[in-house]
Inverse folding.
């Protein structure tokens, strides 16, 4: 566009000024021409105009990484945190809306409601499986950048253990001792934690013990021995006494 102070007649050996401005409508190189019609030889006079339009200020959101994979985690325990970085690589503030997380995952963050241009914030994600096996979820970040919401896929494996015995029920006579094998097996993944074993609730005149008192499945079945000992009855004691006489 142009504005000028030129009159319809320009005196000999005089001048006037035309002020040209540039207002790009799109980004990139733009071209134009100023054309002046007059009564001089070579009319019209032309001036070539060029300029470059830059993109309007806007936020650009980026998250790294776009997925998190957690190592095997025992059921009902919480993992160490893994970080997700939210960056604003644009040239305008990024308005950070809601952060939603699904599945057996949780998050804490230091993200402000308005993230300045060329800055970042951190979202720490933890994994606490509620069941064994593969567990999946997602972290979703709503903002005012193009492509919102930003999504990070989350996955992990919950591990647990089971205990079975060589016999589900049995009757032990008074004065007798019985042993049973206990099998402690991992469920849903490598279970590397130590499991403590103990025996409680035995009836009167009965003792029970487990050896070893702690096992670690560590990806395969571990075994222990349950021993139940009972005290001889009075009648049995009398019979033994008569036999010795």
């Amino acid at each position: 566009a142009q504005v000028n102070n030129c009159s319809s007649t320009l005196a000999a050996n005089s001048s006037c000024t035309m002020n040209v401005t540039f207002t790009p409508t799109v980004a990139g190189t733009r071209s134009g021409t100023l054309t002046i019609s007059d009564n001089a030889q070579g009319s019209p006079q032309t001036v070539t105009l060029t300029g470059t339009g830059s993109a309007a200020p806007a936020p650009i959101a980026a998250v790294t990484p776009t997925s998190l994979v957690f190592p095997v985690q025992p059921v009902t325990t919480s993992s160490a945190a893994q970080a997700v970085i939210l960056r604003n690589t644009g040239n305008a503030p990024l308005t950070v809306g809601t952060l939603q997380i699904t599945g057996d995952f949780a998050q804490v963050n230091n993200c402000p409601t308005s993230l300045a241009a060329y800055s970042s914030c951190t979202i720490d994600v933890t994994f606490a499986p509620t069941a064994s096996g593969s567990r999946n979820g997602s972290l979703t970040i709503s903002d005012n950048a193009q492509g919102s919401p930003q999504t990070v896929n989350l996955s992990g494996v919950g591990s647990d253990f089971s205990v079975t015995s060589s016999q589900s029920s049995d009757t032990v006579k008074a004065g007798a001792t019985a042993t049973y094998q206990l099998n402690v097996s991992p469920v849903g993944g490598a279970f590397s934690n130590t499991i403590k074993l103990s025996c409680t609730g035995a009836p009167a005149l009965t003792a029970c013990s487990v050896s070893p008192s702690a096992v670690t499945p560590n990806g395969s079945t571990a075994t222990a021995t349950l021993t139940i000992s009972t005290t001889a009855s009075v009648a049995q004691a009398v019979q033994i006494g008569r036999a010795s006489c």
Q: What stands out?
A: Residues 234-244 form the longest helix (11 residues). The first strand starts at residue 2 and ends at 4. Residues 36 and 42 are 11 Å apart (CA to CA).
